[in-house]
Amino acid sequence: MRPAERTVSIVIPTHNRRASVERTLRALSTQSYSLSRIEVIVVADGCTDGTLEISRTDWPFAVRVLDQPGLGPAAARNRGAAAATGERLIFLDDDIEPFPGFVAAHVRAHANCDSATVAIGYLPPQLQGRRDLFALMLRAWWEAMFERMREPGHRFVYSDLLSGNFSIGRLLFARVGGFDQGLRCHEDYELGLRLIRAGARLEFHPDAAGWHHEHTDLPRALRRKRDEGRADVVLAGLHPGLAPVLPLSTAGGHLTLRGRVLKKLALRCPNAGDLFEASCRSMLPLLEGARLRTRWRRLLDDLLAYWYWRGVGESLAGAPLASVRRLTAPHDGVAHDLDLQRGLAAAMVELDAIAPPAIRLLWGRLVVGTLAGQAGAEPLQGRHLPHLLRTAFAARFADTLALHQLLEQERASVVPAAPLVRGDAEKRPA
What we know:
By secondary structure, the protein is an alpha/beta fold. The protein has helices spanning 18-28, 73-83, 102-109, 133-150, 170-176, 187-197, 218-238, 257-268, 270-281, 284-289, 293-316, 344-354, 385-390, 394-413, 422-427; strands at residues 8-14, 38-45, 62-68, 88-92, 96-98, 117-122, 125-126, 165-169, 201-213, 336-339, 359-363, 366-371.
């Protein structure tokens, strides 16, 4: 089969994790989809562990290994996409072990030949038998993220795109410019924003699944938070309209007093902050051993926030936070009035026709509530409305319906005064 006839190109970036890549390739060898229509492109990003020799193994599909100096995962994915010949690209991290139906599910996601589809797959975490509090918290975080995307009518946002498991048309990927190679973290978020702005439709496909062999421990998680802080400053500079929804624009009300002190130290006196953080971190095992889980989680949140703000401070390099921070969302204009009293179906059709950035939900003359514009989110559509009424506006909608019923009952209970006849008027005293 000529390479041009292959329909799927799987791009796997890696850095010195040969054994992990080989596990991924073995799992791909068991796919239910025709292996002759698959090509796998492994991009060895500064590898020195023999990853290049993987291509010498006799795999049941075409495998190419591309070598490049350590330019980062964004550059590696772009390099693999540029070499791909398939109509669809599947981006897969090297620590994922795909289920047998993985490729077939991604192909089905694009079966209608809609070039705007971006399919996000499911990654259940495999924690290597760990049952410590940090591992359990990590599992809960992963599953909560996917549960949100499972909900019917979920409104996708830029941060829903996961570079470890998603598929996209090769032409669409090229049209939006691929990953931003200047980012070493949150490059998938930045791409997700540009895809939404370009009119792409993000979808969650749980059947496109694979085990995520998660080895993250606390030190690695804290380093990741530091990288996220650095990346968010860059994101705010690249896309100022996104700044209001980034953590660097939050007030930090979820932090404890200790957390607020750590935040100030991270931005103003990081050397002292590192010492204080190390002292606080030493308390985590003690709290876990005493089964004080609530206090353990509060301390962990404070530590994660500290390293996020350390990254922010490093990226600012002395510039004021106000230079990238936006405390208010950009002006969205007047919210579109949507009257639910005309029926849910009619309101959904109206939303699809207009796709307004903001809406004010009404029940006749009663106001249910207002949904302001949301930076980085896909346009409002009719399919989002039932979900909004079940979640964000559930209490307000119920209160509005109850108030409407009460007003109708009061109106019906008012007895109009009987009209006067001529005889009655004559009997009245002067």
